[in-house]
Amino acid sequence: MTRTVPVAPAPALFRAAMDAATEAVILCAAAGDVVLFANAEALRLLPGVKPGEDSPLSGNSYRAEHDGRHVYGMRRRLDDEHYAWFLRDNTEQTQRTAELEIERSRTAFLAEAGRRLSASLHVRRCTRTTAELAVAHLADAAMVVMPLDNGKCAWIRISPGHAAEEGTLAERVLVEVPGLPEALDGFPPIPSRWLDPAQAPGWLFPAGLGPIGALLVIPLPGNAEPAGALILARSGTTATYSAGDEMLARIFAARAGAAIAAATLYQEQVDTTAVLQADLLPPEIPQPEGFELAASYQAARDSLRIGGDFYDVLGPVNGGSDTVIALGDVCGTGPEAAVLTGKVRQTLRALRLVGVTPEAMLTVLNQALLQPGRRRQRFVTLVVGSAHRAEHGRVRLRLASGGHPPPLVLRLDGTVEEVPAKGTLIGVLPEITVRPATVELAPGELCLLYSDGLTEARGGPSGEEQFGEERLRRHLAGCLGVPGAVAVERLRQLVSDWVHGGPRDDIALLAVRAHTRTPLTLRGGGARNSSPYLVATQRGDRRVRSRS
After folding, report:
1. Fewest CB atoms less than 10 Å from the CB: which of 131, 363, 452, 461?
2. What is the 3-state secondary structure (H, E, C) of 56-71?
3. Of all residues in the chain, what percent are helix, strand and coil, respectively (each to 5)?
4. Are 399 and 512 in contact (CB under 8 A)?
């Protein structure tokens, strides 16, 4: 049989249980909001709470900071005459939340820095972006100092109330900035607490910034060598850089240094490419006495100004009167073809200096391209010719071809003839065959050299039809009587319209045109010029003479 024992109230046991609780509890009377009881945790969090006195808490929730601790509480009704406050120490959670927010802001800053720094390969823009980002997130003023170059360091500075400032520093003044020589040499950054801002020279930042309370000098790591240094300053005598701030600044500096180094490397490559391209770009066309020259070149890719097609004009040497013209097509497109194009042109220029004939130029060039050591065989098609002024305003051309499309001649009667110059591809066989041809141009007649990128250009209504030789001949005939430059530009535009933005090959055009003479007015109403040279141009069997 179970015996029931009556239990008497045990205030001491109740207090012991409440004091053992990890949550702070305050019991209050509804009438007058008087504190009846507060356990040990409540007294620790709110030392000012005392039983018998008015409660310092009001409302239905409580959030405050006491002695560096964050306290959060909720009010709960017990009965009509009593209520209780349940309080909790949220200091650690608040700190974790704050740290998380700080980490999120730092992550967002680094993401923004990466996005903005990677958006450009321009050195000056990268350095300015670095300073702007530093001022927005890390400092009141920032300065980027570039590595030494000829005894000077370029710099850019961002500070409040000032536009971006730029200049140079002499090597001798670098030692005036604490830690700057070491940072430019790539040494690890000196902690901010070891740098005395008072030692910074007055020229480092504008006087309007006020007293500098914290200074940080960080190297900008680059590719195998420093990309510069970043100087950060915070104004105010109590300003500091925490360990977290310094770590964030170092991470940012690493990203900024990589971006500046990449931009510097890109600029060096651009400068080098520009120097190399200078000898590969199509030359300016001279205008020899007695005839007109016009040319056009269009690379397959607009991003490249050079390619596999080329033309060249070499003026008279050693007191001679001949002008050498050349137009060719190296197998392939792009930089590799352009390099071989440069070799071909340099070889032709060297041969020109020793007075070699066009057909001999092709023979020597073939031997040069077959020399051992070339990594990849590439062939060349080429037309080389010599042109000089002949009697009665005529122009005489001697043309030699190495596997190239034959030049076309536009006569005064509008007919288009093919020059019968034949030859073998250059750079394939040890022995080549070259059959040159001589052609004479009467005043106003034109000889056109072109690459197969013109005739093989695909486009038209179907987008796949070739421009073709017949279409070229027809449009060339339509250029009768116009200057050579106008004829070349018209043909180039026609081909461009034909492909209407589609894929294309390199295209080179070179025209030789005899100057047009004004007809002589003779007594008796005028008469046709009976010069035997003009008569010869009207006879088909003497317009072009092939020589083997």
Report:
1. 461
2. CCCCCEEEEEECCEEE
3. 35, 25, 40
4. no
